[in-house]
Amino acid sequence: MSTKVANAAATDYEPVIGLEVHVELKTNSKMFCGCRNEFGAEPNSLVCPICLGFPGTLPVINRKAVEYLCKTGLALGCSIAAHSKFDRKNYFYPDMPKNYQISQYDMPLTTGGSVTLPSGKRVRLNRIHLEEDTGKNVHAGGRMAGAEYTLIDYNRAGVPLMEIVTEPDLSSPDEAEAYLVQLKAVLSALGVSDVKMHEGSLRCDANVSIRPAGSSALGTKAEVKNMNSFRSVVSALEYEIARQKASLAAGERIVQETRNWDEARKLTYSTRSKEQAHDYRYFPDPDLVPLSLEPATLERWRAELPELPLAKRGRFMESYGLSDYDATILSADIPTAVFFEAVVAASGEPKAAANWMLNDVPRALEKHGLTIESTRMKPGQLAELIKLVKSGTISGKAAKEICEAMVADGEDPQAVIAQRGLAQVSDEAAIAKLVDEALAANPDSIASYKAGKTKALEFVVGQVMKASRGKANVEIVRAALIKRLE
Amino acid sequence: MRGQYMRMAEVPIDIDHVAKLARIELTEEEAARFSSQFSRLFEFIDELAQLDVSAIPATAQVIPRINVLRADEVRPSIGTDAALENAPDREGPYFKTPRILE
Amino acid sequence: MRTGHEIREAIARKQTSALEVVEQALESAGRLETELHAYIRLLPERARIKAREIDAAVTRGDKLGPLAGVPIAVKDIFTVAGEIATAGSKILENFRSPYSATVVEKLERAGAVIIGKTNMDEFAMGSSCENSAFFPTRNPWDVTRVPGGSSGGSAATVGAGTVPIGLGTDTGGSIREPASFCNIVGVKPTYGRVSRFGMIAFASSLDQAGPMTADVRDAAQTLEVIAGFDEFDSTSVDVPVSDYTAALRDDLSGVRVGIVAEFEAEIGASDPALAALYKAAYADLERLGATLVEVHLPHARYGLATYYLIAPAECSSNLARYDGARYGRRVQNGGDVFEMFERTRAAGFGDEVKRRIILGTYALSAGYYDAYYVRAQKIRTLIKRDFDTSFAACDVIACPAVSCAPFELGQKMQDPVSMYLMDYFTIPMSLAGIPALSVPAGYVTGLPVGLQIVAPAFEEARMLGIAHAYEAATGHARRREPPLAGAAR
To answer: Model confidence over C114-135: pLDDT tens digits?
Structure first.
């Protein structure tokens, strides 16, 4: 009996996931020196004696990095520490110029707080702390293990890095993704980071364990690293959860270890790194003095916080009558939200604006390799297009064509209409003539209509539209036809 | 072998482990000599245990300063060639080291 | 002309030229080097260029800096742009710095002319200059003896009279002990008074740069030049810099001088001759108008152990960057990058440096951090409080700078703890972060000994003023010349 219960329980595990997200802050200069903070420069061109750890150099804290972290903390409801300090995390690695990383150990800048998901679930945060990024190793000959030697670029060394650590509150890979999407939206709204996972300005490690469903105990966790997109986070978590379940089902034990996600092979593998040999010997960095931010400074930063995605979503639903889904998408990306609101302001048509911004505009942007920031289309032009559709000047079909041209070239809708002859024909006499021609060509349909087959009416409407090459105003065509038939 | 020296010296330091953390290759002779020299120093260090310091705050720094911050302003970098001038080995614009085996 | 202020005056009055002074100093340095070994590297070309600039300024009638044309020697722990800085270590034997230390920039802006980089114990770890990876420096008063350390090269060259001003660093006594051994003035300023930027770190919470000079006036003038907040050093302090030369005085009326009961007991037991010399020095202070008061530093006896946990812990982290990847020496015999690190550091560091890195790594390691490092920081608090209490009863403290006169080379090299004990009287002030200096106080068996004067934080003006009165009244350094004296004298 008891075996049976145990077996039943063993088949029913739930995952417990916590995420550690590293975010590079979008400051002008690095964390502790004046070198430019920029992605993609020539190797070792953005370095100086300080970020190269040359003898005799000292770090000085970048005020903006502290501000960005605190603003993130304020936006997420974290407590900002009254007293904070920087510590040295000591370990040797060739991408780290000093062989210690300046980080925060026991007195991080913020503790607590949460990220609210669109579902309403609150994912609790443990802490956010500030540290410096490392350089980048290039393993000559491909993978690390087989490489003959290592090349190092220290441009990234010393870039301000914010580490956001959650509590183990996430219960599925999809929820982890929703958290990342929401976090990214908040950070992007705050303007504190580029949050580009493919450029490494947002990086995510996951702690994953499984436990019998309903249990409150935590299982042994594996730390999964090396995921380079939200999609790969989901895949890696799915794989890792399945792997742990299979291990337990096979009567094995989960070992605490670091596992790397292999994107090509779609699996996680143990790094077999000697984690147990790590002893970081944290101690307060004697080169820096403690932080104790003035309440007035924090209040000023709080007042400067922009509207956050969830608040914006609520406002979009309430003020513009958008659906939950539409409002979520339009509020998640700041440039999109700004563009959308400008179109609404210029057109007075929130629902039409939302439709364009959710469907034809992104389609055209993607087709032409543009973004809402890089397109030359102005919000006023899209508003004009909406008005032209509403007034009947152009057909819906023509409007789609005009929209794409606007996105691609930034032309005024009127100019596109004139160039391509897309103006809708609403002239009743001209339409009446087309209707007569269509009826003359399709005498059977008149009989069918009179016999009560309304389908026949639509067939003739189609014939008229075809003859007008789509430019006839369909409502006028239909009205003229009904009038003629009755 | 070194473990034996350690016991003889009666110093709590596991020299091999600590040398590994510090990334210094020590000879057996050095490890043994350091152990015995530490044992003399620990006669002094162990005296610190006599003091009751439970109510005493730690002094990490003697200067009472807080919030020393710099403005987020870019200063010129030194350039790739100056950065690599002292490099024991380089390849193009990169520093070059032996491979990393985990 | 043996002091910096005399040289500057002579240059300003066109009685001599900066170039002539520099040539003399270079000649003296070169001539004495075979016996003294004070310099890791002379910088004749750089010195001549700077000297000509000063002479041109004199000719133009420009306003001259406070150290215009004064030749100085800089400990090889400071970076000078375009020049090699070794910190006395093989691991940096070819490291050419792309930037200058803040203090070096300030000295050059004030008109000082750097003639060379002086020898030192490797990474400033030592009290005899014998831990230099290159060669030991000798004492100008007896070349079979050590000049003290770690700033031994600067002390020896100033003591020999080659230059009037040297730049040193003091972490636990590395300016004061060699100043005492070489019969010169050596000042360790308040922690944070002088920028550490460009000063190769040993123990960051203790390291301070300071002047080592022919007399107190030069020390005051040099400190005035190098002191002050530096935006590149977060631990430098924005307390205004006093006019130290204006604070120099000739009598001590109204000054309460604290005499440390525990120190007197210690030295009385260990070296009665030295104890007698210090008693005479205190009597001199009294004769100048000072009142002597007994003060207590009950936790100073724990200073050595406290220091030998804190300083090695910080050094183990500060010296981690010397790994052969970016600069400096590399030793590579196949293997991966970590083996390269381990071999580079094994070959590049000397015994004492390895010893302290191992000790400091241990003190910070898991399971021992609270028992050793945190406990040491708490005792540091107690030592600091002892000084606070004492300074309620006195204006300055006078005490021994050293526990013995200069010793023979090799005498303490086999026993690190006996070497560590050399800093017994200087370590507590370093832990407390307060200013202290050593000023010549006489001779024991013909060898020089310094008196230590200690003041509360940022009271360098008071400390220098009192030292000046003592120096003016006693003139110990003026009375005798070392056997190995430079031509500049």
So the answer is: 999 999 999 999 999 999 999 9
- How many cross-chain Cβ pairs, A to C, lie less than 8 Å apart? 98
Q: Is A97 on the interface with C (CB under 8 A)?
A: yes
Using 50, 70 and 90 to split pLDDT, how confident is the model at A273? low
pLDDT at A1: 38
Are residues C166 and C306 both part of a single domain? Answer: no
Structural domain tally of chain C? 2
Residues C196 and C92 in one domain: yes
Mutate to test the interface with B, among C194, C353, C358, C420 (most CBs of B within 10 A): C358
- Selecting among C89, C100, C127, C174, the annotated active-site residue is C174
**Residue B6 pLDDT > 70, yes or no?**
no
* Residue B30 domain-assigned (yes or no): yes
Residue B80 lies in a domain: no
**Residue B102 pLDDT class (50, 70, 90 cuts):** low
Residues C186 and C117 in one domain: yes
Any domain includes C389 = no
Of A419 and B82, the structure prediction assigns the larger pLDDT to B82
Nearest to B86 among C235, C326, C384 (CB): C326
Is 60 exceeded by the pLDDT of residue A4? no
Q: Do C197 and A57 touch (CB under 8 A)?
A: yes
CATH code assigned at C195: 3.90.1300.10
* d(CA B23, nearest CA chain A) in Å: 8
Alpha-helix runs per DSSP H in A53-114: 63-75
B39-49 as b/e: b if 16+ CB within 10 A: bebbebbeebe
Q: What is the pLDDT of residues A360-375, one digit of tens each?
A: 999 999 999 999 999 9
- C78 & C184 share domain: yes
Total number of domains constituting chain B = 1
C324 in contact with A, Cβ within 8 Å: no
The answer to whether residue B14 is domain-embedded is yes
At A432, is the pLDDT very low, low, confident or very high (cuts 50, 70, 90)? confident
Residue B24 lies in a domain: yes
Can you tell me the ipTM of this complex? 0.97
Quote the minimal CA–CA distance from A109 to chain B in Å.
13
- Domains (ranges, CATH) in chain A? 2-297 (no CATH), 307-420 (no CATH), 428-485 (1.10.10.410)
Chain A positions in Cβ-Cβ contact with residue C231 (cut-off 8 Å)? 60
> CA-to-CA distance for C429 and C16, rounded, in angstroms?
41
Cβ–Cβ contacts within 10 Å for residue A367, how many?
A: 11
Per the CB < 8 Å rule, is B99 touching A147?
Answer: yes
Active-site residue, selected from the candidate residues C132, C150, C154, C180: C150
Q: Which of C196, C317, C377 to mutate to test the interface with A (most CBs of A within 10 A)?
A: C317
Contact yes or no for B58 and C374 at CB 8 A: yes
Does residue C102 form part of some domain? yes
Structure tokens at C248: 């120099």
* Strand ranges (E), A285-423: none
**Residue that finishes a domain, picked among C343, C374, C405:** C374
Provide the residue range defining the domain that includes C322. 302-374
CA A466 remoteness from chain centre: 43
Question: Among C326, C345, C374, where does a domain finish?
Answer: C374
CA distance C320 to C315: 8
C97 given a catalytic annotation: no
Q: How far apart are CA C56 and CA C111, in angstroms?
A: 12
Q: Are C211 and C448 in contact (CB under 8 A)?
A: no
Residue B28: give the domain boundaries.
Answer: 2-50
**Measured between CB atoms, does B45 come within 8 Å of chain A?**
no
CA distance C303 to chain B (A): 10
The rounded distance, in Å, linking the Cα atoms of A348 and A342 is: 10
C283-314: b (≥16 Cβ within 10 Å) or e: ebbeebebebeebebebbbbbbbbbbbbbbbb
To the nearest whole Å, the CA of B55 is away from the closest chain C CA by: 9
**Structural domain contains residue C447:** yes
Q: Do the domain assignments include residue C289?
A: no
Helix (H, G, I), strand (E, B) or coil at C104: helix
Chain A residues with CB-CB distance to B79 below 8 A = 45
Do A425 and A468 meet the contact criterion of CB atoms below 8 Å apart? Answer: yes
- B16 and chain C: CB distance < 8 Å anywhere? no
